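ERR on first pass: missing label on line 2. Operator R.T. fixed the label and resubmitted. Corrected input:
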Amino acid sequence: MPTYFTKDHEWVAVEDDIASVGITNHAQEQLGDIVFVELPEAGRVFEMGQDAAVVESVKAASDIFAPISGTVVEPNQALETNPALVNEDAEGQAWFFRLRPSKPQELDQLMQRQDYEAFVASLK
Amino acid sequence: MHGLNTTALDSLHRTLGARMVDFAGWAMPLQYPAGILLEHRRCREKAALFDVSHMVQLEISGANAARCLERVVVGDIQGLAPGRTRYTLMTNDAGGVVDDLMITNLGDRYYLVLNAARREADLAHLEAHLDKNCVLSLLDDHSLLALQGPLAAGILSDLNPEASLQTFMDCRTMNIGGCECRVSRLGYTGEDGFEISVKADRAASLASLLLSKNEVGPAGLGARDTLRLEAGLCLYGHELDEETTPVEANLSWAISRRRRQTRDFLGASRILDEVEHGPARLLVGLRLCGKAPARAGTVILDDAGREVGRVTSGCYGPTVSSPVALGYVATPFNATGTKLGVQIRGRTLDCDIQTLPFVPHRYKR
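pass 2 clean. output:
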């Protein structure tokens, strides 16, 4: 499954025309213990870069931006009852929402894993 | 992290894997690999060790030291017995809070612990109001460690049984693991515990000794903040500033009866007027119904949707397992039990005013 990354530390994994969106393992390490996640409802329409969700650690709230444009088909309800899942499996079970991309060509503007890893290394 | 002051435990923090942050010009541990939630719980259930060496420690001596100190603080210092500590507030002419601090009577002099972020303001304030015959000595060559939690007393008593003789707000000099320490039974977490002042060159070995005990883990400023918030304790710069009076901050108890009669502290006219007639706004605790935390700056609304206050500190409370916040709410909307709202990302979420603290204090009285 092709996975793409943003400079805001989100990942997008595309399968059967549906994109799952989450935050990277690096992001969850930086945030620390996650205590609350606010997710968009199904049907919400986002343009690339719009505020789409909120993740709160013990210390602070961070915005999650829509990495590509599209319509939300499903929020991950498991995160509402167990936000700590983001710390446990950020790039797996702890996807935030799934959306149907309206401009799939936007994926070309995102980073491949190798580039993202180099980007993270450059931050240290 | 360049250009920051470092404490004597700096390399220990880094060895322990701490995430270091700039706090008031100091490189301090925000958290260790365990994370804020576990560090918080360890302090409530067992014992946690905090480095609070960034705080300002100083001593004031001189024949009239107690009387002089009363010029700058609202508490009863002349009535403070030797070996005892008192939490008090420095005020300005307008009745605002310059800083909150601990004062200990050492017998022949007084020991003060003040906030790092207020160092310059406090020193200028003391300089301006103390007599010429009061001598102020900074203890910059001392570190300050806080061992907090229900197991702290047992751990320290094993190292020196004298610790078990102390009650809340007692201070005495004792030997811990070969180090001469000034040990005060107090803290800022709501738990029983101790603050230990020690020469900086002995601080790392003392910290290592305490951390070698199974029940003790290191905790950073992140956990310190969630612990003090659940304990309903004010943090300067959030709940306290130069425009806020002790009465508004719900700290009237810190103004002793004698000082209310003598009215001889800075800002006494406004402060005592508020004691008598009530303040225009009051610091309260808010318990939020949902799961979203209300952060500092969040607008507080009455049931008609009008702004009646602002949140000053807010986080997820790990012990109460819900979001908690402190904030100022205008009179008459600040009585316990009042139903209010907080505006978070365009939505109004229900909350109500709770009696502080959110988690009962467990001091050794």
